[in-house]
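hey
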C-alpha cells in the first residue's frame, strides 16, 4: 500500500510489468552494467479515479541534456500541432491586445513555433536542455526547468500572467501534479484557460495499449480523473475533444472562471466513462488479463520466427516499446535491430533488452521479412511511406489492439 499522488488515499497495484529501465534510456555497451531498473506497477485510486504508477524514477533520470525524444520526428504531429495552435489562436486569443501563451514541456518547439511565427508572446518551459536548445534555434523562447508552483511564481514576476497555458503529452509525466495545478491556477489571468492533451485511458483500456504505461507516464488520465484532480485548485473542466494522436488521446480545456459552462461533450464523456467502467476494479482486472494474453501471443509468434531463423526487425525505437520488449522478454535473438530516424538513438541499444538501434537507411537498404511496428501510433504515416517494404514481400507484425501479421 502507498498513497495516491493526488488525493492521498491508500492505493495498491493491480498488476506488475516487472523490472523496467528508463524508457528513453538508450545506452552504450559500457553502460549495460550500471543500467537503472525499477518496478513498473500501475494502481488505480478508487477515491479520485486516477491511474498512476507506484514507483517512478526521479525526473532527473528521465529528462536531461541527453533526452532522446524529439517531437519533430513525425510529420503528422507537426501538422497536428499547427492545427492545435491555430485553434487556440482562433478560440482563445482574439480578445486580447498582447496575448501571452505558456507551454509546459515544449520540447523542440513543435507547437510554440506556430505562435512564434505569428508574433505572439510565448514561453516554453522545457527541462530537457538538448531539445530546449533546438526550440531556441527555431526562434521559440524557452527556459529549461521543471514546471511547478515555485517556477510559476518566478514566471509571474518575470513575465506577468498568461492567457493560455498549454501542454501536450506532458501533464501525465509530472508526479507533483498538485503543485503544477496550483502553479497554473496562479499563472493564468482570471479569464485564462489551461488546454492540455494526453493519451486517454478509455483508448488504452479498449485497445489493451499497455505500452502507454512506462516510467514517464506517471498518470493515465480520463475526463473523470482530470475533473477531480484540477477542481481543488479552482480549475473547472469545461470541454473535452478526442484526438487521434498517440493511439487515442483526449484534449481537456479547464477554466479558472468557474462560471464558464460545462460543454455537453464533458457531460457525455463523464457518463460514457461510467458506462465503460473506467472507475471499476473489474475493468483493470480484465485489462491485466488482456495484457497477459497479448504478451503470450507476441512472445509465441516471435519465438516461432526465431526458431525458423526469420529476419525480424523493429520499426521505431519508441519509449512505449521499452515496456513491450521488457515485459515480453524480447531480445536480440528475436529482433536483429530497431530502425529509428532519431540520430540520438542510432548506434545505441534499447533499454533493458539491448537490441541495436540503427538508422532508417539500414531498414530500406536490406528489407527484412518482418518488421514489428513499435511506432504503431504513427501507423497511417508509416504504412503510407513504406509501400516498397510490402512490395519486397515484407510483412508487419502488429500487437495493438491485438497481435497480427499484416
Ligand atoms: N509536447 C511534446 C513533448 C512531449 S515529451 C510533444 O507532445 O511531442 C514530454 C516533455 O515533457 C519532455 O520534453 C520533457 O522534458 C518535458 N517535461 C517533463 N517534466 C516536465 C515538467 N515538470 N515541466 C515541464 N516539462 C516537463
Ligand atoms: P513516438 O511513438 O512518437 O513516441 P514515444 O517515444 O513517446 O513512444 O516515437 C516514435 C519513434 O519512432 C521516434 O523515435 C521516431 C521514430 N519514427 C521513425 O523511425 N520513423 C517514422 O516514420 C516515425 C513516424 C517515427
Amino acid at each position: 500500500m502507498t498513497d495516491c499522488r493526488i488525493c492521498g488515499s491508500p492505493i495498491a497495484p493491480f498488476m506488475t510489468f516487472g523490472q523496467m529501465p528508463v524508457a528513453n534510456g538508450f545506452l552504450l555497451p559500457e553502460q549495460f552494467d550500471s543500467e537503472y531498473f525499477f518496478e513498473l506497477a500501475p494502481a488505480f485510486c478508487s477515491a479520485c479515479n486516477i491511474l498512476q504508477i507506484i514507483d517512478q524514477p526521479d525526473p532527473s533520470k528521465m529528462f536531461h541534456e541527453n533526452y532522446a525524444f524529439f517531437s519533430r520526428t513525425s510529420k503528422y504531429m507537426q501538422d497536428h500541432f499547427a492545427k492545435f495552435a491555430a485553434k487556440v489562436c482562433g478560440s482563445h486569443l482574439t480578445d486580447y491586445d498582447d496575448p501571452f501563451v505558456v507551454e509546459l514541456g515544449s520540447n523542440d518547439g513543435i507547437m510554440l513555433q506556430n505562435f512564434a511565427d505569428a508574433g505572439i508572446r510565448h514561453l516554453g518551459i522545457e527541462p530537457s536542455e538538448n531539445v530546449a536548445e533546438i526550440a531556441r534555434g527555431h526562434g521559440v523562447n524557452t527556459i529549461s526547468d521543471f514546471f511547478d508552483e515555485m517556477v510559476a511564481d518566478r514566471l509571474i514576476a518575470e513575465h506577468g500572467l498568461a492567457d493560455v497555458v498549454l501542454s501536450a503529452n506532458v501533464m501525465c509525466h509530472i508526479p507533483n501534479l498538485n503543485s503544477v495545478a496550483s502553479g497554473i491556477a496562479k499563472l493564468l489571468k482570471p479569464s485564462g484557460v489551461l488546454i492540455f492533451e494526453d493519451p486517454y485511458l478509455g483508448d488504452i483500456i479498449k485497445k489493451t495499449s499497455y505500452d502507454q504505461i512506462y516510467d514517464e507516464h506517471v498518470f493515465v488520465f480520463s475526463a473523470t480523473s482530470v475533473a477531480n484532480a484540477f477542481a481543488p485548485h479552482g480549475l473547472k473542466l469545461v470541454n473535452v475533444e478526442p484526438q487521434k494522436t498517440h493511439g487515442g488521446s483526449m484534449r481537456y480545456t479547464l477554466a479558472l472562471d468557474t462560471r464558464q459552462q460545462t460543454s455537453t461533450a464533458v457531460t457525455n464523456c463523464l457518463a460514457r466513462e461510467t458506462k465503460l467502467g473506467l472507475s471499476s476494479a473489474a475493468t483493470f482486472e480484465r485489462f491485466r488479463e488482456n495484457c497477459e494474453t497479448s504478451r503470450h501471443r507476441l512472445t509465441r509468434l516471435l519465438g516461432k520466427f526465431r526458431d525458423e531463423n526469420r529476419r525480424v526487425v523493429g520499426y521505431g525505437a519508441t519509449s512505449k516499446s521499452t515496456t513491450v520488449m521488457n515485459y515480453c522478454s524480447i531480445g536480440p535473438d528475436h529482433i536483429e535491430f530497431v530502425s529509428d530516424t532519431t540520430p540520438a538513438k542510432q548506434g545505441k541499444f534499447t533499454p533493458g533488452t539491448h537490441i541495436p538501434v540503427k538508422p532508417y537507411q539500414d531498414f530500406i537498404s536490406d528489407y527484412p521479412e518482418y518488421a514489428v511496428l513499435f511506432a504503431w501510433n504513427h501507423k497511417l504515416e508509416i504504412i503510407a511511406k513504406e509501400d516498397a517494404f510490402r512490395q519486397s514481400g515484407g510483412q508487419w507484425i502488429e500487437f495493438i489492439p491485438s497481435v497480427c501479421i499484416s
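The longest helix spans residues 281-307. The domain at 71-279 is CATH 3.40.50.150 (Rossmann fold).
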